[in-house]
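Page header: ASSEMBLY MODEL / two components / 906 residues total.
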Amino acid sequence: MNPLASPLLTDLYQLTMLQTYFAAGMRDTAVFELFVRKLPDNRNFMLAAGLDQALEFLEGMRFGDEELAWVEQSGLFKPDFAGHLAGLRFTGDVHAMPEGTVFFPDEPVLRVVAPMPEAQLVESRLLNLVHFSSVVATKAARSVLVAPGKLLVDFGLRRAHGAEAGLLAARSAYIAGYAGTATVLAGAIYGIPLFGTMAHSFVEAHDDEAGAFIDFARAFPGSTVFLVDTYDTLEGVRKVAALAPKLKREGIAVKGVRLDSGNLAALAKQARAILDAAGLRDSTVFASGNLDEYRMAELLAAGAPIDGFGVGTSLVIAADAPSLDAVYKLQEYAGRPRRKRSAGKATWPGRKQVYRHYARGGGLDHDVVALEDDAQPGEPLLAQVMKGGRRVAGAESLAAMRERAARSLAALPAPIGALDTAPRPYRVEIAPRLRALAEELDRGMAQPLATAP
Amino acid sequence: MNPLASPLLTDLYQLTMLQTYFAAGMRDTAVFELFVRKLPDNRNFMLAAGLDQALEFLEGMRFGDEELAWVEQSGLFKPDFAGHLAGLRFTGDVHAMPEGTVFFPDEPVLRVVAPMPEAQLVESRLLNLVHFSSVVATKAARSVLVAPGKLLVDFGLRRAHGAEAGLLAARSAYIAGYAGTATVLAGAIYGIPLFGTMAHSFVEAHDDEAGAFIDFARAFPGSTVFLVDTYDTLEGVRKVAALAPKLKREGIAVKGVRLDSGNLAALAKQARAILDAAGLRDSTVFASGNLDEYRMAELLAAGAPIDGFGVGTSLVIAADAPSLDAVYKLQEYAGRPRRKRSAGKATWPGRKQVYRHYARGGGLDHDVVALEDDAQPGEPLLAQVMKGGRRVAGAESLAAMRERAARSLAALPAPIGALDTAPRPYRVEIAPRLRALAEELDRGMAQPLATAP
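Prediction written out in full:
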């Protein structure tokens, strides 16, 4: 059993509901939409990611022998349940915003239309995949926006929440505009460019720092970025400068130095001066160590001559907003629109499309959320990506997603693309017919609206 | 290739260092220790978890054909590198604190003693596994401490950071004292008890709420906890009360109701009153919806008659402390102790043991960190778990880890076990010989101590 593809990667209630749907013969078509209800205070937009993983999961979704054996011996289900599950495949349609699209609250990023049991079962894993990938893509986009032209690299695997988080974070950051990652398996699986130098332990294992630098340069003559802060940062930079002529005679150029602790702004200026004085004007200064977009913005504002940043923990856990209020909600069943009305959690019913409107200069102006059959002006953001359980086209390249993200981010109005909370959120209108449908559903139901605060 | 077990689940610099170690013949014994440098402001202790996964990774670590093929065609390494990797296994020794042990900053929770290339390569994945599992175990322990005797269930899969995070979070929460999880695959893989009821979509898919409840009760007569807030919470509770006699005639008892939105304290009291008035005194009130340990403490302090809590996002992402300053540092190489002295990141050198001292009443008093060969009074916390690349004993049961965690948590001094930051941190002493060794190393090195702020 591959745990990353198992249909048991779900909440127990999905299986209990499935058994009930089977027992009650409820196999009519259900429409679920995945969207974010509300942005965290420190986010003005989101960047969509994780669709490819979601589609791969849906295409491959089946109960294997091990999973069926577990269902049978778990004692949780009726004897005929495993038989129902054995034949279960995802046969539905999916519409979605492509990865790298900027999106906002109340806008569906993914819609599933499928027989109820199939559509229900996949909720947990679809959210698990799309939520996390979008959380990190959004976090990464913020550093791309504050450090234009800088080389940004994901260093986060060790403090990512498990292996899949490390892999998906590297992928999301790359889509958002990072140059690459240190996570080797992300390079091997997704073809993302890999970056890396050396650790402090490498320097410490050598009896002297210069010896460590020489060993490394000879092994990787094309990747000579030296970690200089194991003992004393500026001494380390001076050693690199002193070694440069010797390395040059061996045909090796010094690519740069990496600072990983201390006052990065001051050290970057001093390191730059030492390198320049040694004639190493082409070598770069790379910084890492507890960085995030706020710190990067500060360093650049302080004029720190830093050419690239390695960002680890804060990126892969999206430290200041590690989750979004992302949900997957039933919007229609058996041809009838549905609406949840729980206090503070009401949803917009029906199958919907999002239309984007641009200002004259090409920037984003506002979006309109409308019922799918209520065509509107503007650019429709959701497109069909799966029909009858199969993708309608091959997987999109990461390069195409990166391009889309770059265009999307460049088109953000300045206050929306800024780190600080925008004075006014981006405008998302609910089309009149959709609003009318919601009111109609509320009136038509027997129960009064929830009034609890 | 199983991505969760791949040795490519590492940072590129581990591989570049490996190539250099191979080229320079640096295969002497290295000693690395995994520890936390500093606690987040809102944590007074940590709970260790993830060791079993770490040992499984070490035992199975090998480069398969796919991985070797990638290394060869990546263009990043010298031609003979893949050959070195093909034969690489983890052959080292591991000492560790068992899972469910409370630990504090500067205390090694895991020590690896192995030839340098092996010990270096596994850094990223060991940290990735032990860091996250301990982050969630610690978070879960805090809710166990504020809600003694309550049924706590992990609901977090959908917003966990990927699949492995969902699985490991369920496991860590169970070790810390949760009753179980909703994540089915965690039940199937680890044998953790599973909990679950129904989703709002289930109620919405039915044309009336009572019909949904009846369908569910007939399918799961033993799990009749009804989700009552889809439309109007108290109306929902009244429907459950009204259905109870009918269900009773079918031999089905109402186990309880689940509240998932609104003012939970007020609704719990009203729901309890409705259930009691209907003679359903044995049925329970279960609450969920954006809960964490702070909110649970408030609800219980307000006298809310809640019997159990479902905790999702805040638990599995450890929202208020989603990472720890956990590191894996070289402490000795080729028989010589090593010390990193980067500004703010200096380490204690050498192989170490942690000794725990208890107060008269059985509570924790203080710990002492000492060199391994400098035996001290107190309870030693690290034990050998792997020798020559093989475990010295079979995997420990989750039940044993839970028991240890329960004992550990019960022994915490009150201010350390409280939600608020303790006025004084728990006392961790550095033994005199260890302190002397660190000073000696500083004096013996050619470079002056780092002076950057």
